[in-house]
DNA sequence: CAACTGACGGCAAACGTTTGCCATACTGCG
DNA sequence: CGCAGTATGGCAAACGTTTGCCGTCAGTTG
């Protein structure tokens, strides 16, 4: 029979997937047992220098690549991690995904991505299908009930992003600090009445943001109303804008930038002057927030760093502490300005 | 020892990952052989009705979930697919990822995501690490040399997105049609000199777009220059804008929208009137192209559909033909207008 | 009633690794 | 020279599944 598994100069244009080189092939070629090859490659000090050299040379020459699936079985670990996000098309998640992918990849792990589309059922589905495949989960903005999370934690390690549950390592952006800054900013501009355009009620961040906003508003003697909930998409910004405007508030704070940008677009189309008649602010500082019209005042957070942190936590790196809160700072742009009443004294 | 693997009402707060229920457990409980359980679940007509019922009931009661890794070994297929993109933070890819994830997931496949950061080495790296794990690859905007692709195809099935190589199934957006429409549009507005702000020279789409633009420009008797290459990011739009402007062209066509948006931002900051002094156009119609300032004239394409198509192709669905070209249409917005010389006759 | 047929269930060998344990051979020491 | 101790390499059993093959038993047919 012909050679096979040479350094890959064979041309197999139509052929089915050529069988990969296995430990057995290398062992046969090197004249040793498979176990020896296995050790020579993954546990080098366990085998004599002479054989080690020879085996490694043969393996290199034959272009041997361990089969990760086969490794995973006896090891019980797959070196794969899952990242579940609620909306893969939300730019907010891009940075998270990239940070996580980079960090996982640096640690020799593969990242499996899942899009839960904001549905707890789909999320639960994904978790089930993945739990025999991955060593751990990153659940970003998870909408799973606490009980389900607890149960999952029994089988796999889990890290939460932008959600806090007792007993879970998590990374969150400082929504309450951000909210405080929003309120202070609006208060300083003379706003006395704010409308919060809420996100999905099962989104953890929605509750946190609302509570922080309302408590700080109360402290500052500012009226605040919660409107919605609205789907956090640009499209649904239209409804939100109309509802917000009719509430009579002079400032609209949206659950996130997707919604805020939608609001901005709607207001522009309706001919409402921003920030002349009404100010708008959001959360996340997503791609586009800096060049929409007018540029959006929003709470920014180091999301790529969050992606890395979340993987570190999952991998049990000492450097990452369980309850990491990433700083979130208000970035003031042109969508917020003095309250209308104060401009006409 | 206590029960284990019951329907999951056990609370293991601190415990290590509880061992999962296996075929053996079910077999023992049901008093049959493992092979019978296996068949009862995945090949039901192969086993008698009475036993089948019983086994299935036991499996359900014990909450048995097949271990995908263990299944993959004898089957030789993992039911996982890889999607490699050159830049996960490019909004253009969001739709692709979502479409692909949805379609894969619908077919019972898992999607492994890789970010190659535009580097052929990183791409090759990912491919190696993934090839024992996934059943197939989607390479989006791959920068791998043809030879490497051919070699990979020998081991795994491969589908290309936005790149065409002989012998490979691929999905591309109709860059040449889009380019024609750009040139026609600009010509109709009186432009006589265009600058193409090129992307990375190893990007397949860059070559296609440039050739299509220049050939149609020639046909229309329009001057066209290729400037760059530029990194296709918003940040590098600044350089591109300056270079483009100094070329004296009245219209700038950017390699993609990321670059185009960067150009727009730079021009606005420099006080250059768009489209009064210069028109700008791009490709992809990404998130943000419709609300940047001014809204960008660009070539749009059904990218989520592309994501689905690419998976269909990989899975060998009959419905998807090997050389799929998705329509790309020019979306005219405010960033393009009459050439300056024609407005002052 | 014997022989044939098909349905059904079990045994065991894969799949490609890892790893505990054992046998051998070599080292150095008394 | 004999012994203990150690370095080295091989055997074989896992890991959890799938699947080819075979035996058994019931049902059918002549």
Describe the structure.
In chain A, 48% of the residues are buried. Chain A has helices at residues 23-30, 34-42, 49-62, 68-75, 91-106, 120-130, 146-155, 175-188, 204-219, 237-246, 257-269, 303-314, 340-343, and strands at residues 80-85, 110-115, 136-140, 157-161, 170-173, 193-197, 223-227, 251-254, 279-284, 297-300, 323-326, 329-331. Chain A has 345 residues and is an alpha/beta fold. The model of chain A is unreliable at 1-15 (pLDDT under 50). The longest helix of chain A is centred in the first third of the chain and has 16 residues, at 91-106. In chain A, the strands form 2 sheets. In chain A, strands 2-1-3-4-5-11 form a 6-stranded parallel β-sheet, with helices on both faces. The first copy, chain A, has 3 domains: 1-66, 434 Repressor (Amino-terminal Domain), CATH 1.10.260.40; 78-173, 3-Layer(aba) Sandwich (Rossmann fold); 175-303 and 323-343, Rossmann fold. Chain A has 13 helices and 12 strands. Chains A and B meet through helix 4, helix 5, strand 2, helix 6 and helix 7 of A and helix 4, helix 5, strand 2, helix 6 and helix 7 of B. The structure holds a DNA duplex (30 and 30 nucleotides).
